Amino acid sequence: MRARQLEVFVAVMRAGTVTAAARMLNISQPALSQILLHTEDELGFTLFERVKGRLRPTPEALEIFADAERLSAGLDGLRRKTTDLRLGRTGLVRVAASPPPAMAILPRAFTAFRAQHPDILLRSHSAPIAAIVDMLRAGDASLGVAMDDRLPPDIEAEVIGSVGFACLLPAEHALRRKTELTLADLVGLELISYRGNTRPADELAHAARAQGVTLSPSLEIDVSISAVGFVQAGMGIGLVDALLPWHQFAGLAVRRLANGPEFPIALLTSRTRALSLADEMMRDQIRAACAAVLSEYRVRA
Amino acid sequence: MRARQLEVFVAVMRAGTVTAAARMLNISQPALSQILLHTEDELGFTLFERVKGRLRPTPEALEIFADAERLSAGLDGLRRKTTDLRLGRTGLVRVAASPPPAMAILPRAFTAFRAQHPDILLRSHSAPIAAIVDMLRAGDASLGVAMDDRLPPDIEAEVIGSVGFACLLPAEHALRRKTELTLADLVGLELISYRGNTRPADELAHAARAQGVTLSPSLEIDVSISAVGFVQAGMGIGLVDALLPWHQFAGLAVRRLANGPEFPIALLTSRTRALSLADEMMRDQIRAACAAVLSEYRVRA
DNA sequence: CAAAAACCATAAGCTTGGCCTATGGAGTTG
DNA sequence: CAACTCCATAGGCCAAGCTTATGGTTTTTG
Hints:
The structure is a homodimer. Chain A is α/β, with parallel strands linked by helices. Chain A has ten helices and 13 strands.
């Protein structure tokens, strides 16, 4: 039994006459009549008795009607679902990002995405990079945004921008007079920065060596945002990525670090998993949002 | 989405490769490949990523897989059901009959039917004729067997035989010497027979008048089988249809009534309801069983 | 009571779906 | 590197599904 035959049968059962059923399905009466006759021929038993030019359901028709109706409705539902999928009107996009892009880029990307596709569920996971990789592998997220492009081979990293470092000064710190700081300015000061053996810590150490200075981070952090509290408490100067919108936090002065290393901003996807259309649209939005955020930063600097 | 596309999609999801799926569906690999490609084209999004010659389901495919599988299974189930209906391997046949045919004809008809169609449920309702008509009208039974052919116009009655009357004698009654009785033999005796204003009572009275005798039923019954107890108790001679297998009851002697009226045996159907194939097969069995029973009676007589 | 309306079926013709066999290209493996 | 496996394409066939045109029945209506 083909899907069309099912629809025709259900329509005739509901409408009572072939003509009305044809109207319901927006096809001609002979077309529907043919399908119905052909269906009966294939089934091997009649579905309707023709009596005085009218149709009367046979017991067999009554017997299969309930199933036919259920299946027909199910097919309709699936068709609706697929058109929704085609138009990107349904689905769930999960993005895992480390905190700086999660706070700086995703809000903008999600806003633009939501404006275009109001019916797609969005989920943002703020996680350290190792967790992001795990989520991408497991399919718990289809997109990742991190500040590292050195990743396992099964993770594809597309660099969509880069940012330098920012120095977070306690509100009344002397260095706030300068609009830009260099590594040399920080020598001998209490520094709050990334723990050793991480990408940014290595890059910072390398840059310092290149510039002939020695830095001594006295407080190591894991995620840049956790520096906020320590800086506010006056425990030192935060030396962190410039991406996170630090100006949102009170009690901080933010200054660019000149001649420092750059963080790549990478869009991560699993090589073993395909992106849905919705994912791809979100990826575009993230690229755009990243570019927009970076250009704003450049203007401000 | 056509049913075939659904099946192909499910098969590919389950099999993992186009080739294996084609084997599952017993079609050629190119045929399945085409259907899959065409389906993706119609849907507007890809269901599988082709990577290194292999297929990998897209998130969209995963999203609709559950529904597709459910629907595909449902279609399979419906197809099985329809072939069962065609072959008469499923269904329910309900027959309403008055007690004499229910006891004399239906056992034989049901036995033959069951031998041919062991999977069809059978239901026998023993009921007075008015109830049979109601059941046929309501669809609670599709076939009826009664000993009357004068029925409302919406009930079709096909006479499939006729039987005369039988006289039920208490075990030691004097009349048992005769192999056949006439109405004249019964004059003046205590009779147990149908209540007035019923078809058989009228016919009996008419026959008696025609033969110039007067009968005086002293105990009126509704259904012939209820005569058994009264006859066994010696309350009189039962004058009832010859159809019911009276010889099954102990303490009775059965003698044919010669020159008495005949009961029609009628097969009843509703004119407003169609018969299922199973109903029609049962109707044939009832006709055959009736003929067989009547010929046995004739041999015995 | 006859004309109009409603209903179903058939006929002829077209487009597309679904299937085949044959073949080729791409990737994996012994 | 050759054999194997996998998927896609090409060309051809038949049946499904749709159209318009038309005719036969039965019911409704003026």
